[in-house]
Amino acid sequence: MTYAIAQAAERSGLSIDTLRYYERIGLVEPPARDSGGRRSYTDEDLAWLEFLTKLRTTGMPIRMMREYAQLRMRGVGTEGRRHQILVDHRKDVLARIAELQTCLGILNYKIDLYGDRLEASA
Q: Sorted alphabetically, which SUPFAM superfamilies does this protein's record hold (predicted)?
């Protein structure tokens, strides 16, 4: 199945401008064009956009996403570096999760403290 850029934007959750930007900076290969010259995205393109969105959501810098994307486009022989990029990023994500867990613990402590005080004054 193929999708026009507006449909791809809707399905991916990205804006049309972001899709064009990702294409311009080399995160996505230029999609095929239909007979009218309009971009035509495939399910495979959408799956790649979903993966890029996950990388971005987890805080991977654009420069690392670009390196990964360029390696992916080169294909066979780049698996080792792609693997290392993901392993390194996972380490960063796990550190961020640990940091957020610590922050959550402090929030929970304060919420409980105020809850106890409010209960005592009621």
A: Putative DNA-binding domain
